[in-house]
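REQUEST FORM: STRUCTURE PREDICTION
Request ID: SP-0412
Submitted by: Lab K.M.
Chain count: 1
Length (residues): 181
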Amino acid sequence: MSKIGKKPISIPQEVKVKIEEDKIKVEGPRGKLEKNIPPEIDVQIKEGVILVFPKSKTKKAKALWGTMRQIISNMIEGVTKGFEKKLEIEGLGYRASIVGDELILEVGFSHPVKIKKPEGINFSVEKNIISVSGIDKELVGQVAANIRKIRPPDPYKGKGIRYLGEVIRRKAGKKAVTGAK
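STATUS: Completed
RESULT:
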């Protein structure tokens, strides 16, 4: 039994949920989201609550049960509140700016790195903090990870792009040799 999969998902009043064959559609004040339901999972709406059940007792059905329940919960949270990831740029001369619908990063390369804004994602830059926000949790996390991957934090100097609050373990550099033989 899945501890997460058993929990019912309450539907807020401003959110509309539709289940059509193998798709679930969630519509709220911030937008609409749509996801395919795996054939091993059964999703039902009863009295303003969404219930998720496995159709069989296979290993795959058990694995997808809790995952699908959490995905649906994140969809409802996304169309009501939205999601946001913050990244911090650290390094001398490292900076970010927004021009049109592109995020431009200057992070020590010979050229600025341009990232086109995907549909459903918003960028904002404040000093050295980049905010990635949207209604789809998976897309927000993936875009933030792609931005971080451009210049991951250096373990020696700490320069690079990191998540806000992420702690980077620093390594000691080369030490001078003390004492003669």
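NOTES: The chain has a mean pLDDT of 92.
Reviewed by: T.R.
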